[in-house]
Every structure is written in C-alpha cells, then in structure tokens.
Amino acid sequence: MIKKDTQALSTIKAQIFSLKGKSCEFCINRGRKKFDTFTAVIDNAYPSVFTILYNEKIQTFSYFDVLCGTVKINAESE
C-alpha cells in the first residue's frame, strides 16, 4: 500500500513510476459515500498525472489524489 506523509509527493511519484505496467488494486472515492474498488494496470506515469487502464478505458489521476486519499493503491504481491 502506498502510504502518505507530509513530504510524500515525490515519494508517491517514485512509487507509482516503479509500479508502471503492473496490476494494482485501486479504491477510488467518488464522493457521497460512493467508492469504486477494482484491479487495473498503471499504464503510464507523467510529471503531474498517471493513467490507468481499466476495462479497455484509460482513466487519469493526479499524484495529489493519492496524497489526499481520494485514490488508494494496493500493489498486488506476485
């Protein structure tokens, strides 16, 4: 699980860059007590956002979403 701390934005970026191409479990807070939990592949990582491939669709999230807790990522152990 990617953990958050006060100066973690660069740490989060590095962890997501290392997970590029791997399957991870995502828990997304969509608001109003709606949560989506699914397994997807981290498709690409850019300087301010990263993309995931889920059901043949690409979704984009920022690293700040992970820092705030809106997006939670659990790397699956192989």
Give structural notes.
By secondary structure, the chain is α+β, with helices and mostly antiparallel strands. It has a single domain, classed as SH3 type barrels, CATH 2.30.30. The chain is 21% helix and 49% strand. It is built from two helices and five strands. The protein has helices at residues 9-18, 63-68; strands spanning 23-31, 34-45, 49-54, 57-62, 71-75. The longest helix has 10 residues, at 9-18.
Tags for this model:
SH3 type barrels; five-stranded antiparallel beta sheet; 2 helices; 21% helix; globular
Distance between the termini: 14 Å
Unreliable segments of 5+ consecutive residues: none
CATH topology descriptor: SH3 type barrels
Spatial order of the strands in the main sheet? 4-3-2-1-5
CATH architecture: Roll
Count of distinct structural domains: 1
Secondary-structure element pattern, one letter each: HEEEEHE
Largest sheet: 5 strands, antiparallel
Strand content: over 45%
Mean pLDDT: 89
Our count of helices gives 2
Structural class: alpha+beta
What portion of residues is helical? 10-25%
In the CATH scheme, the class would be Mainly Beta
Envelope shape: globular
Radius of gyration: 12 Å
Number of strands: 5
